[in-house]
Amino acid sequence: xxxxxxxxxxxxxxxxxxxxxxxxxxxxxxxxxxxxxxxxxxxxxxxxxxxxxxxxxxxxxxxxxxxxxxxxxxxxxxxxxxxxxxxxxxxxxxxxxxxxxxxxxxxxxxxxxxxxxxxxxxxxxxxxxxxxxxxxxxxxxxxxxxxxxxxxxxxxxxxxxxxxxxxxxxxxxxxxxxxxxxxxxxxxxxxxxxxxxxxxxxxx
Length: 204
Ligand SMILES: Nc1ncnc2c1ncn2[C@@H]1O[C@H](COP(=O)(O)OP(=O)(O)OP(=O)(O)O)[C@@H](O)[C@H]1O
Known about the structure:
This protein is of the alpha/beta class. The protein has one domain: 3-Layer(aba) Sandwich (Rossmann fold). It is 28% helix and 25% strand. It is built from five helices and eight strands; from the N terminus they run βββαββαααβαββ. A five-stranded parallel β-sheet has the order 5-6-7-3-8, with helices on both faces. It has a three-stranded antiparallel β-sheet with strand order 2-1-4, covered by helices on one side. Helix 3 (96-102) crosses helix 4. The longest helix is centred in the last third of the chain and has 16 residues, at 148-163. The site of adenosine-5'-triphosphate has 13 residues, from helix 1.
């Protein structure tokens, strides 16, 4: 579903990672690990096409992925239900009710997204993934702001996604109880010769 070969990742003109290679098959989760600042977010952004790679190759089905980070693609003035309906229409899928149920959002359906708490907003962002119908999820710290119950909701959602033949590449510091996730520790891929140009400045 995803193949990354010899990838070099930069941020702010500094080469962070080099020689990163991995494959991700249907039904598989790959967890990116490493200390703060090693480049987990930058790697995810590069795979998602939000910033260019300095080198290497990324192969996957075009339009096959959905990306979720801190800015979740949620419109503050639209209600919870309107946001999900909007994305369901964009992706040509349905399942708005099921997505709200999965993240316990039905009692909040009419609330403007801008009036949600941080954790509620994060639940809405994760519910958005369910209505995309996309097989590959790219997730940057998906459990930030979630309480224990909501972490459980996310864990159930990602397990169901994998069981249905989806895949997930995620940066997370917590154990989601996934069966046999592959863990990729990024520290060994730290770039030895950081470049200091403004290569990706326009994409920050
Ligand atoms: N907009 C930016 N401009 C320049 N440098 C940046 C920018 N955003 C992040 N960086 C730097 O790039 C490096 C990698 O950051 P990144 O967010 O990818 O790390 P991370 O592994 O996800 O960290 P964390 O575990 O703290 O989330 C860090 O040194 C960071 O300071």
